[in-house]
């Protein structure tokens, strides 16, 4: 953290009795012993194969006892002959159990709580009186123009503040209850906290208005600058998938045609309805940019209105049975320092299939991520992403879905396909004409219309549907595709093609 203070009037440096000292309050770190690797003398005298011989293993306690007594170091011995020997088994960890206070200001990251211990010292030989202390944090954009710090401080003496381009936030203001006096060589201490919510350059502004030993009223501003970095980067991908769902039941038959055996009875699947459902998958990749490991307490996706979200996790087959305690106290996810990543996958669906779907698609806002974490010694952090937008959705006027399909389709035998025409607009559409277009040569067509080539349908109300049946016949066996169904709006003179495609299996017998 760099510090600075303003000069006196007319550009002359002012002599002040008081001075601010700032120390950042953060968790200490573990002291690591930098001494060479320590060892036990028994490891040099006895190999691992000693335990293979039962006779030699029986004499091991006596041998170890003799070596332990020989390796014991007298505390009064000031020589270094035992500096490589393990006195305690925990000495091999290199952690003597001491904690080290921060030796530097360190890095400050977005989402953390900036806590600072501020001390105002009286370095003069006289007592100062009526000390009004103000402290604030000023956030300045990187392209913010330089200003005269003294004039800035004099114009903002009414409060300590955090200032961005649009707002200011007070941290401390003792104007209503000034410090009566600070004796010569004495000090006054206080602590300020601030939740860091912006990136870039920050300035901690500390000001004091006091009366010195010459009964002169003086004003002391000091500025401490630091940078705020981003601890995480969140990359997202949104994928829209159309899932085909079928409702079916089982009926017994006598022939063996597309059947399977169940309790020595033959059954086939009678498809009652086929419909599609749009599912959105959100992938979030979180990367750690800090110099310490991050333990993710929570990475929760808060869906926007009309959406519901489910987190998808890999299934780990563990031999230990799961308990209520393990579900309550879940182990945090570790993202290693210096570029470690972890991926999360969420499945998003519309919470209600009615008009909410159209409102959600028009807004394109899926939601936002709430991320909380802790460092090695438990310092918390919290971030919230901006709104995550979905992929552009092409607004359709109508959709065509299959709702009924026979389970067995025979070659050159007619069959009925139940279709559902859905109006996705806010207006009445229709009447319609439906036919199967001839794509390519007639010899290549595997499924054709049986009977009238054009079917007339009535009007469809807004956000409603109309069910109808199409009589088709398959002229080729094997896996074939039903395609080319065309819907024509006779009022708006608009043709809708490629609304529906489906693969079927055509059997010979």
UniProtKB/TrEMBL annotation:
Superkingdom, taxonomy of origin: Eukaryota
Location of the Trafficking protein particle complex subunit 13 N-terminal domain: 16-228
Trafficking protein particle complex subunit 13 C-terminal domain ranges (all copies): 406-497
Domain Trafficking protein particle complex subunit 13 middle intervals: 277-387
Gene Ontology CC: TRAPPIII protein complex
Similarity field: Belongs to the TRAPPC13 family.
Record's protein name: Trafficking protein particle complex subunit 13
The organism of origin for this protein: Salvia splendens (Scarlet sage)
Lineage: Eukaryota, Viridiplantae, Streptophyta, Embryophyta, Tracheophyta
């Amino acid at each position: 953290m760099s510090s600075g203070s303003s000069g006196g009037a007319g550009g002359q440096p002012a002599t002040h009795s008081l001075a601010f000292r700032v120390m950042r309050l953060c968790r200490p770190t573990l002291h690591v012993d930098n001494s060479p690797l320590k060892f036990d003398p028994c490891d040099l005298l006895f190999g691992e194969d000693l335990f293979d011989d039962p006779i030699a293993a029986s004499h091991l306690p006596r041998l170890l006892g003799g070596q332990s007594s020989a390796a014991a170091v007298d505390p009064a011995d000031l020589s270094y002959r035992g500096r490589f020997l393990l006195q305690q088994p925990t000495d091999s960890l290199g952690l003597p159990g001491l904690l080290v206070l921060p030796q530097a200001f360190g890095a400050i990251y977005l989402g953390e709580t900036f806590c600072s211990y501020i001390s105002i010292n009286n370095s003069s030989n006289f007592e100062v009186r009526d000390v009004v202390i103000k402290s604030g944090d000023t956030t300045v954009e990187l392209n913010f123009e330089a200003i005269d710090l003294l004039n800035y401080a004099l114009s903002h003496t009414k409060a300590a503040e955090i200032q961005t381009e649009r707002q200011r936030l007070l941290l401390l203001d003792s104007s209503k209850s000034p410090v009566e006096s600070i004796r010569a060589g004495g000090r006054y201490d206080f602590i300020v906290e601030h939740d860091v919510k912006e990136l870039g350059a920050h300035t901690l502004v500390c000001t004091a208005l006091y009366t010195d030993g010459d009964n002169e009223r003086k004003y002391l501003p000091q500025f401490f600058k630091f940078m705020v970095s981003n601890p995480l980067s969140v990359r997202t991908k949104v994928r829209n998938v159309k899932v085909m769902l079928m409702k079916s039941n089982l009926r017994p038959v006598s022939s063996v045609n597309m059947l399977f055996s169940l309790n020595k009875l033959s059954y086939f699947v009678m498809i009652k309805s086929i419909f599609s459902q749009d599912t959105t998958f959100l992938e979030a990749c979180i990367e750690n940019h800090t110099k310490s490991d991050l333990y993710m307490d929570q990475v929760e996706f808060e869906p926007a209105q009309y959406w519901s979200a489910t987190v998808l996790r890999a299934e780990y087959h563990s031999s230990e049975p799961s308990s209520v305690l393990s579900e309550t106290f879940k182990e945090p996810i570790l993202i290693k320092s210096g570029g470690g990543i972890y991926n999360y996958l969420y499945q998003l669906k519309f919470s209600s299939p009615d008009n909410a779907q159209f409102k959600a698609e028009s807004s394109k806002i899926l939601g936002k991520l709430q991320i909380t974490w802790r460092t090695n010694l438990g310092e918390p952090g919290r971030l919230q992403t901006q709104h995550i937008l979905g992929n552009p959705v092409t607004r359709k006027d109508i959709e065509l879905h299959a709702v009924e399909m026979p389970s067995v389709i025979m070659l050159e035998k007619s069959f009925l396909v139940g279709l559902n025409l859905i109006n996705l607009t806010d207006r009445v559409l229709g009447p319609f004409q439906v036919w199967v277009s001839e794509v390519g040569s007639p010899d290549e067509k595997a499924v054709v219309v049986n009977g009238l080539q054009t079917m007339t349908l009535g009007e469809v109300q807004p956000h409603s549907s109309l069910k109808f049946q199409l009589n088709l016949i398959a002229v080729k066996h094997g896996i074939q595709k039903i395609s080319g169904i065309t819907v024509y709006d006779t009022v708006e003179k608009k043709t809708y093609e490629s609304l529906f495609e489906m693969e079927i299996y055509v059997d010979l017998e």
